[in-house]
Every structure is written in C-alpha cells, then in structure tokens.
Amino acid sequence: MSYLQSVPPHDLGAHLAEHDSKTVLRFITCGSVDDGKSTLIGRLLFDAKLIFEDQLTNLGRVGSPGTANGEEIDLALLLDGLEAEREQGITIDVAYRYFATSKRKFIVADTPGHEEYTRNMVTGASTADLAVILIDSRQGILPQTRRHSYIASLLGIRHLVLAVNKFDLVEFRQSVFDEIARDYRAFAKKLGFVSIQSIPISARFGDNVISASQNTPWYKGPALLEYLETVQLDPPAAERPFRLPVQLVMRPHADFRGYAGQIASGRISVGDPVVVAKSGQHSSVEAIVTFDGNLPTAAEGEAVTLVLADEVDASRGNMLVAPAARPFVADQFQAHVIWFDASPMLPGRGYILRTETDSVSATVTALKHQVNINSFAREAAKSLQMNEVGVCNISTQAPIVFDAYKDNRATGNFVFVDRATNATVGAGMIDFPLRRADNVHWQATDVNKAARSAMKSQRPAVLWFTGLSGSGKSTIANALDRLLHARGKHTYMLDGDNVRHGLNRDLGFTEADRVENIRRVAEVAKLMADAGLIVLVSFISPFRGERQMARELMEECEFIEIFVDTPLEECARRDPKGLYEKALAGKIANFTGVSSPYEAPENPELHLKTVEEDPTTLALKIEAFLDGQRGDR
C-alpha cells in the first residue's frame, strides 16, 4: 500500500532525507453539516495506520449516546476534540492534522459545516491547495455545499475532490453517484477549478478511502489517498515576484539594521536589488540572516532578516519587493468581502483593516453588489449580513501595499476588525486598485491650520455631544456656543436636525443611513477644525464605532466626547418633539433607545448628568474644562 514506508527503519539518515524531500499538500475538508468530514479524515488516518495506540484508546464508540451501535470506533473524535464538539456531535473549530505517506506530506484542516461557523471554514481554506468537498449521497447538493465551494474558489483553491459520502446508505448505486457528480460539475462550472475529481466513498467503512472498494466495481478512478498523493499542484511560489512584508526592524546595536519577515513569495539572493514598496527607495541585499546562520539565498516561506546595502525607511507594514515587478500601493481598491459578524457590514462605517503586517483605518465606500451563493447572480444590497459575500470599494486612511489576490494570496488578503470590540468581523480578497486613486491628490496650500488658529487666537477643537433624543445635547451645546461667542471665540454648531435639512436630507434612519450621516458630519467637522474653529457637534450618534471613526479623523486631543447622560424615562417625559410617544406606539421604526440601540460612551472626556443640573451650569463646566485643558483664555 502507498502508506507503507519505503526506507527501512534502521536507515535513519536516508529516511530523514527522503522525508525532507517530499512535497507538502495542504487541503481542507468542507461541505454541509453532518456530511462526514471528520469521520473521513479519521478513517483515512486509521486505515493508513497513522494513529498512535494511545489515541485509539481515548476514542469513544459509535454506540455512545445518540449514535448507532457499540461495535465501531467513533473516528470523528480524532478531529472533534473540543468538549462542545463531542457533546453535540458537530465540528465547531478548525482541526489541523499533520501526516505523511511514502510519497507526500500532508496538512489537513477539518472545517465545520454549520453556516454559523463559516468564518472558521474561511480560516482553513485561506492556506489550502486543495479542497475535499463532501456530499451526503442521500441529500445531494445543499446550500452549504454551494457556499463552501464558492468560498474555496474565491480563496484561490484550484483543485477539488468531490467526495460523495455515505454511499453504503444508497447501496453503492452508480446512478446516484453519476447524478450528483454531473449536477455538481454543472454548478461548479463558473468557479474556475482546474481539476475536479469525483470519488464515491463510505467514510464509515473505508470504501475508496485508501484503496479501491469491491463495492464499486464500476468506479475506475483513484481512491482518495492515492489521488491526494499524486495530484499535480500549481507551480511553486518561487516563480512569483519577490515579496517580503516587513514585520520588524532589527536593531540589536548601532552597527546592524535588518528587516525581518517571512518571504511571502519569490526568491532572494545576496546581491539582488530590492525596492521599498511605499517609498520607491532602491537598495540591494548585503546579507540574509537567519537563526541558523547566514544564507546565500532564501525562498517563499522562510523567515529571514535582510541586511541592505543602504539606509532606507522600511518599517513594519512596508514591503521589500523585486524592482521589476512591484506591487500596488494605493488607498482605494475593490475587494471581495466575506462577512463574519452578526452585526452587518455597512458602507460608511469605519473599521480597522489589517494585512499581513499593516494596520490602517478603512471605510467601505460602496457595496457594489452581493453575490447570490446559489446562482452567483449579482444582487443589489445596502449591507452584508453574516456569512454573505459582496464586492466592495474600500478606502484606507493611508496607502497600503498589495497584489491582486489572484496573483498572490499572501499579499492580496486582509481582515476587517471592529474598532470597539477588536473582533475580526470580515475577510477580504483584493481584486484591483481603483483608478480614481491615481486622479486624486492632496493640493498643497500656503495657509495651514496653525496659521488660521493663530489669527483667531484659539486652538481648534471638535466638541462631540452624544446622547439620546431629548437628553439636552442641543440645549447645552447652544448655551456653550453663547458663552464662547461672548468671549470672542470663533465657533460653529452642527446640529443633527439642522444638517438633515441640507447636507444629509437624502438620508433616512436605517442603521446604514445613520452610519453615513455621522461619516459626513465628521468630515465636515474635520474641515471646520482645519479652518481653526471650535466646532460643536450635537448628534445622537448612537454607535461607538462611528464616534471612534470621527475621533480618529481629528488630531490628537482635538476631539472631545461629551456624553449627555439622561435616563430614557426622563427623555420620554420631556419628549420635546413628541417622538417617544410615536416610537413606543410602533409608529416610528429604528428609534434610538426604543427600537434601535444606543451604545453609551465608555470613556468620554466629559460625562454630564442633566437630571442633576441645568443646561447653563453644564455649559459652564464644559467651558472650564476647555480652559483647563487647552489654555484658551
């Protein structure tokens, strides 16, 4: 059998040499829930004699509560190691297993089938060369089968095994296999897979897993393990242009400066020219330093420190690249985005975008369309819900370095991180930079913010009043505006209701519209601060993420968050516009505090409680805070 070792055990040197020379295949198992993914990998390892005795001892039986009988080992438990997985009989997290045969080394990621854990499937697929898509022969192609197939294609997997499982339950009928294989090929025709190998299997009993089954004499193709050992992979990454994302600048002493990172693609040798991607500075490689000593050359996957012949500016987030094949450097691009979070992705909302080594603030400027997983049709959408896929235009606050994902998976991917929770909420694959980025440049001006502020004898500030409707934001801001005006300060007040009569009159009160409402106002406030003004912004601004986005637009210490804290009952009692009565009666949708959430500030610069003091007294407190913090007397 192919899994038997070809080198005698006593010839250790030859064995290690052969092992090191083997190619590595990274693959995933995926598909709908309960299609037998974990059982398949467990069966493959068991039949190939790649399981240790102590592992077998710890396995349960198929006859455990809720299962079929007590005779067979429950092979799925080799992969489902979490207590919750064993209790529920499902895969939740990604389980990795490493094994080798006489022909090849393998890294397999067993991914969950539940739609809720699609993000974990994406994690496993992001580095895989091949996907094993399982289908229950009784069920056929299910929505999650389609979803996982599409995501595998989107993530750059080009080789696929269609494992038609549980074939013993349909009496090994060829007609069932032919129909499923035909339907799947028709469905996957648009996905761009280079190869699709269909195999009828029974993971439970091992049919066609490591050797041909007598139960399927009509099937003339390879068994699963045989195919995995022999499938031809894509050309080696060394043929792609050199890319080294800089993770760390090494300065152990004054005479050494090295740029450390893992080579994402290509090959580099001592003496080769390189370019710093963001600045365009040229240099050449003087030394390739590793933990085990200096190397004359290094290739994709190796962790190295490059010492250059010249002093260049290449900090973390930059990239050293081949001069003749440079990546893109842009702050606007199109990408496919897979959304993970229960809270929808909304255009206009700010996120943190992280590449392999870079981290910048970013905004989805447009959701061009959502992709229908079943038909691949492009559908109009205003947001992306959890596990949905869409094509977006994205803008970052600073340029990033990237390749198109189809050209380089390592340098063409990113994740979105929520500003407030620091949770990963989405993953993206970059398609191309937007040409508009080449047409928009900063115009230098002779009169700057400092000059404008000096002329007004004040320091600019953005006072951001946030709180429920009826909390007293506008009343307090108006009182403060009068106080500052009386002292000769140059101010301007941006009120939520007033702005909706003009700049934002096209926006409604959906969550997406509220996000855009705050984004526009934050940009206007930034321009006014640049003019040297003290800007008073009075908006409910219910979401922490948008307030954080506004803060990051301003200079340090320029943004002052003022939480006007009034209990909901008191706001409803005041009800100056009669809105709470209508909202509580269900006549107004998406009303903050009633049918839409308000996320109170966690660390505002000022926390004002209006029940205890009148608006003028609170305005005086803000004035005193400004005097103490900014010296604007």
UniProtKB/TrEMBL annotation:
Binding site for ATP: G467, L468, S469, G470, S471, G472, K473, S474
Gene Ontology biological-process entries: hydrogen sulfide biosynthetic process; sulfate assimilation
SUPFAM superfamilies: EF-Tu/eEF-1alpha/eIF2-gamma C-terminal domain, P-loop containing nucleoside triphosphate hydrolases, Translation proteins
Broad class of enzyme this protein falls into: transferase
UniProt domain Tr-type G: residue ranges: 22-236
Keyword Kinase: yes
Positions with a binding annotation for GTP: G31, S32, V33, D34, D35, G36, K37, S38, D110, T111, P112, G113, H114
A GO MF label: ATP binding
Origin: domain of life: Bacteria
Keywords per UniProt: ATP-binding, GTP-binding, Kinase, Multifunctional enzyme, Nodulation, Nucleotide-binding, Nucleotidyltransferase, Phosphoprotein, Transferase
Assigned EC number: 2.7.7.4, 2.7.1.25
Active site: S541 (phosphoserine intermediate)
Catalytic activity entry: sulfate + ATP + H(+) = adenosine 5'-phosphosulfate + diphosphate; adenosine 5'-phosphosulfate + ATP = 3'-phosphoadenylyl sulfate + ADP + H(+)
Pfam families cross-referenced by the UniProt entry: APS_kinase, GTP-eEF1A_C, GTP_EFTU
Pathway info: Sulfur metabolism; hydrogen sulfide biosynthesis; sulfite from sulfate: step 2/3; Sulfur metabolism; hydrogen sulfide biosynthesis; sulfite from sulfate: step 1/3
Family membership: In the C-terminal section; belongs to the APS kinase family. In the N-terminal section; belongs to the TRAFAC class translation factor GTPase superfamily. Classic translation factor GTPase family. CysN/NodQ subfamily.
HAMAP family for the chain: Adenylyl_sulf_kinase, Sulf_adenylyltr_sub1
Subunit text: Sulfate-activating enzymes, NodP and NodQ, may be physically associated.
UniProt function note: Catalyzes the synthesis of activated sulfate.
Protein name, entry field: Multifunctional fusion protein
Organism this protein belongs to: Rhizobium fredii (Sinorhizobium fredii)
